[in-house]
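Hi U.,

Before I forget, here's the chain from the pilot set. I'm dumping it here mostly so it's searchable later in email.
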Amino acid sequence: MTNCPECDAPVGAQDRFCEECGRNLLVRTTPVGGPDGSAAAQCACGSEDIDSDGFCELCGRSQPTGRDRMEFVLPTLAGISDRGRRRARNEDSMAFGQVHARGVAAIVCDGVASSERSDEASQAAVDAANAVLVDALVEGSDPERATVLAVASANRAAGELARPEAPDVAPSCTYVSAMRTESGVVVGWVGDSRAYWLADDGAKTPSRRLTKDDTWAAQLVADGVLTEAEAVNDRRSHVLSRWLGGDSGQVSPHVVTLVPEETGIVLLCSDGLWNYLPEVEDLDAVRPRGAAPLEVARHLVDTALEAGGHDNITVVVIEVGGADDR
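Structure:
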């Protein structure tokens, strides 16, 4: 016997719906509007002893609330979004869901800082995309087509926030998503939020970055104008060539499919993490092995914070190939 995640009423292991509130127990997702961030489970110092006033009992630090620090956990995946140390607000958003025996879906969007209400744009985009991807899992739809439809829905949701009199600063964001089903992992993206495959030790499917940035610097590398080393320090390294919302127009995502032969994790992240750990070797060097998704996410976010935390940091970790609930 367990409890309903919505109303906490007792439910049986074979129940499909909660008799008390009617919630579908086979589908679990982040709340629309994002996790409320009201109770980060752990202080930055590592202590889990937070008093009723929101202060760490070990170091005395006031704990972030609201969008400053959001954490959410489902079986086989977890995510954290943190404001960082330098930004006035968190413009990143994340959403994810799990459908029993069908798989999981997750999205990370990073609000474009030069646009207005970019935090709203990123949240509207992840919520819209999550609804499409979770529905696709329920229906058993093709993940690649679902990814294309999710991006279209996210683009519309962000675009609807624009003010006609202010097209130059219309709310906009980047996008990256992953759908894990029994047939593999489908990743889609627009912009410079990234996805990585991080294989467990000894795996035949090596760790690798799954996305290529939609930036002017990346395009110049592809055209042979810049080397990878030159692009890292180029002023155009974060100038987007594609995005969602604003004046993005009709956008089709890049889509790739990964069929790993062994266990590992798919990592979705905003540039607040990969600015400090850009290469797959960097991520593999610091991530804890054999840890639960939430522990991996916390460790990576803490690493970015300790390195300076100059931007918002969002990390979603998805287990692949383990003893899970697909």
